[in-house]
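User: Sequence recovery, please. Input:
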């Protein structure tokens, strides 16, 4: 059996993870997946029960599992909890505890949803890209100083640093991801200004010989931000550091039309974690209106990257696309001429199309 740890978390987390588990269970027999599910607490729910947002039992279970399916954490109920015990600390704890060094965010604009994008339909139709972001290094994890005073002037600073092994690890994953797709990789840096970016570029180029079947190009981050808005179709896989990846992946996510649709994978040294990119959406929790597709598509990524079940992953993606093409929508993406369904009902439509 292959063990999947399910962490629903808070807010809409329970509804959306339950939808994704139902989809996985429906596929189990057809593809002989032999999945076993175990549910654990994290976030505000865990704080209420155990006084901590990430109980040791949850982290330990994740470390020995085949993969983790995560909903979302957080909510106004825990606004006044002290900073180190806030629900969102569970995410940082899981990243650190599982060594989640890479975040993969695919952005695919489906024909049925081109009108939901803030960009013009002729620019977004056919967009299908993945951003591979380094997740545990760079300026977010460098030394910092909140305040120092020299000659009467206050200053703060954050240090960006990357090592060759850190860049090699993420670049290798990005090349391998490109190989599974259209074999095109764009590395994004700021090598015209930053020393860390020049090391990044040298390291990427040095690895390129081992992946000569993948076409590689480099872009400065400012140009990449612009290209994502004017010609996003040119991209297949983008690899970049932690800070640039944080910004570019949010920019790219809006191209798709709704954050409810967007999946992600955080690849780890021990176990990898799969979650939608949105938060716990307390404003719509418990109303059966949340869009479960981001989580269901995250489950497809789980099958692809952790269990190497490519056919099963594609089956889920095709079922989601067909459901949308047939005109079924949740409230966040509903428009004239489409049929609005709740979380449970649209999940049933997806399962019917597997
Ligand atoms: P959010 O992503 O939860 O919600 C933003 C808006 O998008 C809301 O209007 C919400 O209703 C809508 N939305 C989000 N997911 C949706 C879905 N699946 N279907 C339909 N609509 C959806 O962001 P927020 O409101 O800024 O944050 C709410 C809480 O979530 C906060 O406590 C925040 O810290 C937390 N958060 C958690 C994660 C995580 O667990 N990975 C990520 C981001 C935010």
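Assistant: Recovered sequence (354 residues):
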């Amino acid at each position: 059996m292959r063990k999947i740890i399910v962490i629903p978390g808070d807010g809409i987390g329970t509804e959306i993870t339950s939808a994704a588990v139902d989809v996985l269970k429906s596929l189990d027999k057809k593809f002989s997946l032999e999945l076993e599910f175990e549910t654990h607490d994290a976030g505000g729910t865990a704080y209420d029960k155990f006084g901590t947002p990430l109980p040791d039992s949850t982290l330990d279970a994740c470390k020995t599992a085949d993969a983790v399916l995560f909903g979302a954490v957080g909510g106004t109920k825990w606004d006044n909890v002290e900073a180190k015990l806030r629900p969102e600390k569970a995410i940082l704890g899981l990243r650190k505890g599982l060594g989640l060094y890479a975040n993969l965010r695919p952005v695919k604009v489906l024909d049925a949803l081109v009108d939901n994008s803030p960009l013009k339909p002729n620019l977004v139709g056919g967009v299908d890209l993945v951003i591979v972001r380094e997740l545990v290094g760079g300026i977010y994890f460098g030394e910092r100083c909140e305040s120092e005073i020299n000659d009467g002037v206050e200053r703060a600073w954050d240090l960006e640093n990357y090592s060759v092994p850190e860049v090699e690890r993420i670049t290798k994953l990005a090349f391998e991801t490109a190989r599974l797709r259209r074999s095109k990789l764009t590395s994004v840096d700021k090598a015209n200004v930053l020393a860390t970016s020049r090391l990044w570029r040298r390291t990427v180029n040095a690895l390129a010989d081992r992946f000569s079947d993948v076409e590689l190009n480099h872009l400065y981050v400012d140009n990449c931000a612009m290209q994502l808005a004017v010609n996003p179709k040119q991209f297949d896989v983008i690899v970049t550091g932690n800070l640039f990846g944080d910004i570019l992946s949010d920019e790219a996510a809006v191209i798709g039309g709704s954050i409810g649709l967007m999946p992600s994978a955080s690849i780890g040294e021990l176990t990898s974690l799969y979650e939608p990119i949105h938060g716990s959406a307390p404003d719509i929790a418990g109303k059966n209106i949340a869009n479960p597709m981001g989580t269901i598509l995250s489950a497809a990524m789980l099958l692809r990257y952790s269990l190497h079940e490519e056919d099963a992953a594609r089956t889920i993606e095709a079922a989601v696309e067909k459901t949308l093409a047939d005109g079924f929508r949740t409230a966040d993406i509903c428009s004239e001429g489409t049929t609005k369904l709740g979380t449970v009902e649209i999940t049933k439509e997806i399962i019917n199309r597997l």
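The chain has two domains: 1-101+268-354, 107-258.
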